[in-house]
Amino acid sequence: MFGYVSVNPQALSEAEQQRFRAFYCGLCHTLKAQYGDVGRLTLSHDMAFLSLLLAALYEPAETALDERCALHPLKPHHAVIHAGAAFAADMNILLAYYKCRDDAQDEKSLRGRAGSAALKAACARVEAAWPQQARAVRESLAALNALEKQPDPDLDALTRLAGEMLGACFVWRQDAFAPYMKQMGAALGRFIYLMDAYEDYDADEKRGAFNPLRALHALPDYEERIQEILVMEMAQCTQAFSVLPVEQDVGLIRNVLYSGVWGKYARLSDQRKEKQA
To answer: Per-residue b/e over 27-60, b at no fewer than 16 CB within 10 Å?
Structure first.
């Protein structure tokens, strides 16, 4: 469920692109500091965006770093770390562990088994520190897996459960902003779940695997319906964001929400149109 939340670099200045990379590298730094190299391997743009969003909303003190790493050993790169990045790193570990465990159980994936074993201790630390978020992820994923095993599961119920997982992971503090952060995360989680199904549909069909879009795919206006649902989910996400008093990096965040998240969808949609033509 990772990889759909990123920037549209063509609509950003060089300074804005560097700013997002700094949060991405800052999350990588934080994962390494808190969980070692195994933590760094879970790094995702999704949680880098959460780190950026938390910094913009709460404006904690930021520490700027110039460092080298294994992936960029020759040229120093900028990184930004802050208190919210530690929470984003914890949620990154939580989601990565349960995705690996899910892959190991459902797909008998060797990579999933290896990943879940490697992340088990780190995830236990996260669950102890953030029991509410961990409970929401566990319970939603269990309900989602049970529903996916039914003959004709309801798409709305599936996406709702997927949204509940990410929605819980967006709530750093129980304050006046929490309901809107949860709404943002939930809508984004539903969008990601649908995008994952949309991208994997052909591969799932070939191997006889479950895909929540199978019933919808049989309809003649499948592509139009998918686009309509995705637009609706992101509209709910951006509506929740509009309530938050964010000024710092607001252009960068809007770039992700209004443009960046659509990058992979646009490529996939164009490929399908070309294939049909």
So the answer is: bbbbbbebbeebbbebbbbbbbbbbbbbbbbbee
pTM above 0.85, yes or no: yes
Task: Give the residues across from 65 on adjacent strands.
Answer: 79
3-state SS, one letter per residue, for 253-264: HHHHHHCHHHHH
Cα angle 103, 164, 86 (rounded to 5 degrees) comes to: 80
Exposure of 25 in the CB half-sphere (CA atoms within 13 A): 21
SS3 of 249, please? coil
Q: What is the pLDDT of residue 1?
A: 47
Could you tell me which of 163, 181, 168, 169 has the C-alpha nearest to residue 245?
181
Q: Give per-10-residue mean pLDDT for the chain (277 aa).
A: 82 94 95 94 94 98 83 77 97 95 78 90 97 97 94 95 97 98 98 96 92 94 96 98 97 97 91 78
